[in-house]
Queue: 3 jobs
Job 1
Amino acid sequence: MRCEECGDKLDRFVDRELTNTEALEIQLHLEGCPDCMEHYEFQEHLKRLVKHSCDCDVAPQAFRDKLRQILS
Ligand SMILES: [Zn+2]
């Protein structure tokens, strides 16, 4: 699997919306690809942050810096 393809499916992987086969492919790719693993961890972090946004509407500075870094 190419990183591009992994990136396309990462959203759905984080949301557990992929089929078992697809999820396994992503898992295997992440284990061998630190770049995609970092994106995955970021997405997970983002998801948790969104989930808890009711009691914390301001993202920590470090997180916002990282977000800017990834989006730029
Ligand atoms: Zn990759």
Note: Residues 3-71 form one domain.
Job 2
Amino acid sequence: MSQRTPLDRELSKTVSLHVDQLVATISQVVRENIAIQVTEYLSSRALGSGRLAELREGRRNVRGCIAPGCSNPSKGPRFRYLCQQHKNASKKEVEAWREASRGHGAPKNGVAAAAVAGRAQSRRKVRRDMSCIAPNCKNVSKGPRFRYLCAKHLNAPKKACEAWRAARRG
Ligand SMILES: [Zn+2]
Ligand SMILES: [Zn+2]
């Protein structure tokens, strides 16, 4: 004896129709999401490579031909930073151009000098930091793990250490 009535059959047909629609809708949404993600991914990649090209362009500009008014990229240090067109220039000419381009490079030298000064400064700081913070103590401290104290002052009370540190800072 079958339990299936015409109503049952109608119901199951409707349900399966809706399920099919649901599956179609979900898969479309998923596909759209993936499409958006792929588009975003690709556009971010394109942006990244654009930035890279910009960087490369910038580097090429820095190493341009040193001949005055020449905007060609140079062939590098082996060609005295001259382009294809100027690489056979006379030594005297090249010397003059280099002198002129060195003049333009003054701020660059300034930056280099500052970097050197900064390095010297940090070296000095490191050396100062490595000495014991106790007043009038010339011993080398055992480092940050020992609150910048030497072996002799290692067991100094915390309050004293704080006072010494404050005195050194101020
Ligand atoms: Zn040139
Ligand atoms: Zn000490």
Note: Residues 132, 134, 137, 139, 149-150, 152-153 surround zinc ion (ligand 2) (CB under 6 Å).
Job 3
Amino acid sequence: MTTHVTIIGAGLGGLTLARVLHVNGIPATVYEAEASPMSRLQGGMLDIHDYNGQLALKAADLMDEFRSIILEGRQATRVINWDGTVLMEEPDDGTGGRPEVQRGELRQILLDSLPDGTVRWGHKVSGTRTLDDGRHEVAFADGSVVVTDLLVGADGAWSRVRPLLSDATPEYFGRSFVETYLYESESRHPVAARTVGGGSLFVLAPGEEANGKWIGAHRERGETLHAYVILAKPEEWFASIDFTDSAAATARIAAEFDGWAPEITALITDTDTAPVLRPLNWLPIGHRWDRVPGVTLLGDAAHLSPPDGEGANLAMQDGAELALAIAAHPDDIEAALTSYEEALFPRSAAASTAAVAVNEAMGQMLIDGLDHGERGERSERSA
Ligand SMILES: Cc1cc2nc3c(=O)[nH]c(=O)nc-3n(C[C@H](O)[C@H](O)[C@H](O)COP(=O)(O)OP(=O)(O)OC[C@H]3O[C@@H](n4cnc5c(N)ncnc54)[C@H](O)[C@@H]3O)c2cc1C
């Protein structure tokens, strides 16, 4: 009889796993803490790569649906200096391998592709344990429990499944993002809109500061500008800011960018929402575990890293590869999990190493890239 797969977490990784299992005729149930798909804004734009995220969508048989939500023109990239000097300008000529989509729309495609009832909303896992017979029990906050032969933790950074496999817990990476949103930018924030351009923007801080301080921004669907301010500061520094006082928090973050070109600081000062603090956490590079029968992890639960544009892609790749491994070994779950993890561990260690390097030396990497012939019109102003 086919093993029923119990998945914790309806993020992109867990849903891709459920979908590729479904395509291969294997039943699964996904337990998700949030009350409904609409509980929370699903975050910004994601570039989905032809070497991992898109391969997962192919395995999920969802490429047509994926193409229908691609935001045209958003692979355009600008790099500018803190004073507004344009360092690099790359248009989207339609040949790039990293089309951009809204995370919420991608998640909806996956949800729509699953049989009704696959996702059980409002099921927050409070704990997990291994039973004497080797199966696993999952306890939910409402007091209910399920017992399963095959449990997959796709429940992100603070996974409740991970303790069955490893003692590792995420630690602060020493940097945080502060996110802002500027809506209807063409009419309401035209200077900021010109500064961001058609797709993605990176703004470099002067000199040595550039590695731990930069601003990124995306032009999302509906002319929304979504900016990410990156600051290498301890958690205590952010804790001293009252993020419930939107005006004061905005002013405090903007003060870090005193002297920068006003078209850049407008991405902070003109925000239409309260600034959102996102501390970056990570698991040790090379996080792995010994095989425990009937349970495994994927995505951030397995290899949380500072963001470098790969995390969601990797979570989807993990989900697809785990499903394909289970489909390839329908009568031998341990062989499936062993083959999945043998590929997962080195892949995630390499990805985490790259993510840490990018986050520790973002400015230098961009400058090196520019010095290798990608420099554009240096003397132009950004807006
Ligand atoms: C600021 C920022 C920007 C990023 N930008 C990018 C980017 O541009 N491109 C990219 O590829 N990646 C990006 N990432 C990384 C990416 O968001 C993650 O790597 C990716 O979402 C991981 O997917 P996942 O399915 O493993 O986990 P998640 O997306 O975290 O999904 C986990 C799911 O499990 C649920 N859950 C959690 N706990 C429980 C529980 N106890 N019980 C039941 N359900 C639970 C959650 O509600 C959630 O739905 C970014 C990350 C950050 C912080």
Note: Residues 373-379 have pLDDT under 50 and may be disordered.
